[in-house]
Design goal:
With 177 residues, the chain is an alpha+beta fold. It has helices spanning 38-45, 101-109, 118-131, 137-143, 155-176; strands at 16-23, 26-33, 64-67, 70-73, 86-88. The chain has 5 helices and 5 strands; from the N terminus they run ββαβββαααα. Strands 2-1-5-3-4 form a 5-stranded mixed β-sheet, with helices on both faces. Bound molecules: FE2/S2 (inorganic) cluster (FES) (2 copies).
Length: 177
């Protein structure tokens, strides 16, 4: 995730605008005040409360979502920045009752304790594994460095990301057989 994110203010200017984008696979049209940040639009206007805010300054990564497959801090974009893009949140990762490989791996490996950072970590890991399904430990460590976890000591998160790669590879193999 980019580390050059800047804090932005969510102050209602009185003007609103329509934002159209694909959200978790569905076309979505929302009218929001122009100053609304993406984090607020997702939680307040779209009820996607799996997206968690914390520092709201682009530092902790807990609000990470994917925009056009790239992990971004949703507190560091305006809602209008996602016009015409594809946005994914934790709510879109599950297929019916089936958890995604990354969700399953975090559960299997105990990659969370309080769970507050988990949606952001899962979105971050999902982005990594889409570009590299077999990252080595050092690559995983560098990739997740943008997100803070105050509970796990990171070891189980590292294991979970590696395990997720194995599960994703196995499920791709099944899909192609
Ligand atoms: S809440 Fe967005 S980076 Fe911390
Ligand atoms: S599991 Fe508690 S902050 Fe990461």
């Amino acid at each position: 995730m980019s580390s050059d994110t800047q804090p932005i203010e969510d102050i209602d200017s009185g003007e609103s605008m329509r934002v159209e984008f694909v959200l978790n696979g569905e076309q979505c049209l929302v009218e929001v005040p122009t100053s609304t940040i993406l984090l607020t639009m997702l939680r307040r206007d779209l009820n996607l409360t799996g997206v968690r805010g914390s520092c709201e300054r682009g530092v902790c990564g807990t609000c990470t979502v994917l925009v056009d497959d790239r992990p971004v801090a949703s507190c560091s974009l305006f809602a209008f920045d996602v016009e015409g893009t594809t946005v994914e949140t934790i709510e879109g990762q599950q297929d019916g009752d089936n958890l995604s490989p990354v969700q399953r791996a975090f559960s299997e490996c105990g990659g969370f304790q309080c769970g507050y950072c988990t949606p952001g970590m899962i979105m971050l890991a999902t982005a990594l594994l889409r570009t590299n399904v077999k990252p080595d430990r050092e690559e995983v460590r560098k990739w997740i460095a943008s997100n803070i976890c105050r509970c796990t000591g990171y070891e189980m998160i590292l294991e979970a990301v590696e395990r997720a790669g194995e599960l994703a590879e196995a499920s791709d193999g099944e899909d192609n057989s």
